[in-house]
Queue: 2 jobs
Job 1
Amino acid sequence: MAKIVVTGAAGFIGSNIVDYWIEKGHEVLSVDDLSSGNINNINSKSLFFQGDICSKKTSKKILEFSPDVICHQAAQISVPYSVTHPYIDAKINILGTIRMLECASKLKAKFLFASTGGAIYGEIKDIANEDTEPSATSPYALSKLTSENYIKLMSQKFGFKYVILRYSNVYGPRQVPHGEAGVVSIFLENLINKRKSTINTFPEDNEGMVRDYVFVKDVAIANDRALELDKCGTFNISTGIPTKTKRIFSLIVDALKRYGIEVSESISVPNYADARPGDLRRSLLDSNRAKEILKWEPTVNLKEGIELTVKWFLERRGQVRT
Ligand SMILES: NC(=O)c1ccc[n+]([C@@H]2O[C@H](COP(=O)([O-])OP(=O)(O)OC[C@H]3O[C@@H](n4cnc5c(N)ncnc54)[C@H](O)[C@@H]3O)[C@@H](O)[C@H]2O)c1
C-alpha cells in the first residue's frame, strides 16, 4: 500500500484516479481548492484538504502527510482562458507545479504529472509520438511544457523519480465542458435540454476536427501503471484512433435513444460553423511507448465509453435507474 497525494482530486480526472486507488487499498490525501472541482467528487475514504497548490499551507499539509507519491492533476485547464488570462494560467500551472515539485524534492516522493499531448504537439500531419517536436501555440500548452522541463530538471537535482503522462482528449463520467474533450459534455447537455448543437469545421472537412478520445478509467489505469514503474519517463496516453466531431455527436445521439431519451429530428441534426481561432485540424497521439514500457493499453472503446458517459449523465439527472 502506498501513501499518495492527488491534487485536483475534486476534478474530473483526479477524482477518477482517487477512486481507482482507494479501491486498490492505497492511502490517499485528496487536495483541491474547489475553484472548479466539485466537493461531491471527493472520495469519502480519502483524506481531504481544501487548499490552493500555490500556497505554503498546502505544501505544509503535504509534507506532514509525507506521501510516497504526488500525483499532480490540479490545473487551469481551459485553452481559451489561458489566452485571455496568461498570468493566472502560468501562476497555477507553472508556479503551482513548482510548489508540488518542492514537496517531491524534500520527500523524495515520486512525481506523476498530468500533461497534455493535444496542446503540446499542436497541429500534426499524421500522428505524434513522444519524440515529435513540441509546438506550443497557447499559454496553456506552454505552461504544461515548461512544467515538464521543471520536473526533469528538479528530478535530476533532487533525486526523485517522475512520470509525465501526456493525455489526449479525455472523456467520461464527471467530465466538464471546458476540458480538452469538452464537446462530449457540451453535446450531451444540449441534447438532453433539447437545444441544437454546433460542430465547428474547417472548409475542407464538413465532419469536424480529428481528435483522439481516451476514456477516463483508462487514464486512471495509466496513472496506476506509472505508480508501479521503477524509472522516469514521458508517455502519450491515447488510443491513436482518429475520430471526427460528427462521429462523437452521432454516438451520443444513438446512446441517448438506447436509454429511451427522445431526440427530435431537428436537434439530432447539428448546425455547422467555421473553426475558431486556434482550433487544431488534427490531434492524434501514438501510445506505443506506454504499451511497451508501462504495459498500458486502452481497454474501453469509444462506443462503450460514450455509453458509460451518457449513462452517468442521465443517472445524475435521475433519468435512468442505477
Ligand atoms: N480533460 C482532458 O481532456 C485533459 C487532457 C489533457 C490533459 N489534461 C490535464 O489533466 C488534469 C486534470 O484535468 P481535468 O479535466 O480533470 O480538469 P478539472 O478542471 O476537472 O480538474 C482540475 C481540478 O484542479 C482544481 N484546481 C484548479 N486550480 C487549483 C489550485 N490552484 N489549487 C488546487 N486545486 C486546483 C480544480 O478545482 C479542479 O477540481 C489537468 O492537469 C489537465 O491539464 C486534461
Job 2
Amino acid sequence: MSRVVVAAAYGGPEVLALVEEEPGTPGPGEVLVEVRAAGVNPADWKTYTGAWGSDPARLPLRLGFEAAGVVLAVGPEGESFAPGDEVIAHPVQGAYADHLVVPSADLVPKPAGLDWARAGGLMLAGTTAVHAVAAAAVGAGDTVLVHGASGGVGAMVTQLAHHRGARVIGTASPANHEYLVDLGAAPVAHGPGLVDRVRALTPSGVHAVIDTAGTDEALDASVALVSDRRRVATIANGVRGTELGVRVLGHGPGGDPGTEVRRAARRLLAELAGSGRLTVRVGATYHLADVARAHRAGIAGRVVGKIVLVP
Ligand SMILES: NC(=O)c1ccc[n+]([C@@H]2O[C@H](COP(=O)([O-])OP(=O)(O)OC[C@H]3O[C@@H](n4cnc5c(N)ncnc54)[C@H](OP(=O)(O)O)[C@@H]3O)[C@@H](O)[C@H]2O)c1
C-alpha cells in the first residue's frame, strides 16, 4: 500500500489527511517510483484553499507536483529507466505519497551529487525560473530586478540571471539580505519607497524585471523602472500583470504556461544542481504525516528555502 496525502474538502491545512491506497501497476510507458522526497510549493495549498476554485467534483484532491525517488518497476515501453534508477519526477500530480506511478517522460535522472531533499525541491521552482529568465530575455550586461529573490523561485532566478552575466538586484525582507548576497544579488527591502531604493542602487537603470512576489507594489514599481514592458515578467500576479501589459507566466488566465521550455530545462537544472553550480536551499523537512504543519509554515512565510516532505 502507498500512503497518500489528500484534501478531502476545500479549506485550510486541517483538510489534509493521509490515506492508504494501492499504488497501482505501471502501464505502457509508465514507471513506479518509491518517493524519497517531495517538494512543497505555494501551488500545493492554492489547490485546496479555494485560490483556484472550489469545484466539489474535483475532490478528493491529490497534492504535490514534484518528487525524487527510486524506480521500483517499469511498465511496457518504459525502457528508458530501470529498477534501482534514482530519478526526479516533474511535472507530476500527487507527489505527496510514498509511491507514485508516472509516465517515464515525466522523469529525469537524479545526479548522484544531489541529495534527496534538494532533488525533490528543485524542479518546480527551477523550471519556472528558467522560463522567467528566458521570457524577460535576461542576458550579459543587464541589470535585472527580482521581486521575492529570497523565495523558492526567486533564489533560482537570481542564480540563473547571475550565471548569464546579469547584475541582479533582489527584493527581500531585511533578515534575508545576507542570503541574497550569497546568491549573487544586491539586496533591497520591499515596501514603500522601493522605486527610489532601486534607483539609488542602479543610476543607469533596470533592463528587466522578474516578479515572483505578486504584489501590486512589485508590478507598479517594475513598470516605473523599465521602459520596455515585454521585459517585465510576473509569475504571481496575472490580474495586475495583464492590466499593465507585462508578460504573465503560468497556467492562470492569459498566462504563458511555457510547457516546452520548462520541460526542456529539467536536465540542465539537474546537471547544474548536481555539480553545485546551482544551490537549492532546503529550509525545512517534514514527515509526510506532518503535511499540515509544513503547509502552515509555508503559508505563514516562516521558512526561507524549500520545504520538503519525506515519507
Ligand atoms: N506562474 C507560475 O508558473 C508559478 C510557478 C511557481 C510559483 N508561482 C507563484 O510564485 C509565487 C512565489 O513562489 P515561491 O515558491 O517562490 O514562494 P516562496 O518560496 O514562498 O517565496 C515568496 C517570496 O515572496 C517574498 N515576499 C513576501 N512578502 C512580500 C512582499 N510584500 N513584497 C515582496 N516580496 C515579498 C518573500 O520574501 P521575504 O520573506 O524575504 O520577504 C518570499 O521569499 C507564489 O505565488 C507561487 O504560487 C507561480
